[in-house]
Specification:
Strand content: over 45%
Largest sheet: 7 strands, mixed
Distance between the termini: 40 Å
Order of helices and strands: EEEEEEEEEEE
Mean pLDDT: 94
Structural class: mainly beta
Helix content: under 10%
Oligomer: single chain
Radius of gyration: 13 Å
Number of strands: 11
Length: 127
């Protein structure tokens, strides 16, 4: 079992920045991928980015490239999502998820591919 806990969400003004965190515990292994998703009211859960265990390979949704950055700190067993130039349409609940696997171009972009989920953290961007 893997437990994931998101933190760092909150209210930010448009064009501002925010970094949210995903702390992992439990049976984390060297092949665990961590992904970030978000879900706005009335919308489907949307892929943002994913990172492999070593932190040297990442996948991004096209909508996230240039504004969002995923990274991980093994010393803290934590994955981060740095969000810059935020827009009101970025308002959503942000979730991290993990799965044991190998990250390749184009894979692990769908929610059903992940095994473990955090409870989510709310990000609200005001105009």
């Amino acid at each position: 079992q893997v437990q994931l806990v998101e933190s760092g969400g909150g209210l930010v003004q448009a064009e501002g920045s925010l970094r949210i965190s995903c702390a992992a515990s439990g049976r984390t292994r060297s092949t665990y991928i961590v992904g970030w998703f978000r879900q706005a009211p009335g919308k489907v859960r949307e892929f943002i980015a994913a990172i492999n265990w070593d932190g040297d390979y990442t996948n991004y949704a096209d909508s996230a490239k240039g504004r969002f950055s995923i990274s991980r700190d093994h010393t803290k067993n934590t994955v981060y999502l740095q969000m810059n130039n935020l827009k009101p349409e970025d308002t959503a609940v942000y979730y991290c998820a993990s799965v044991q696997g190998i990250l390749r171009p184009g894979n692990y972009r769908r929610p059903h591919e992940y095994s473990y989920w955090g409870q989510g953290t709310q990000v609200t961007v005001s105009p």
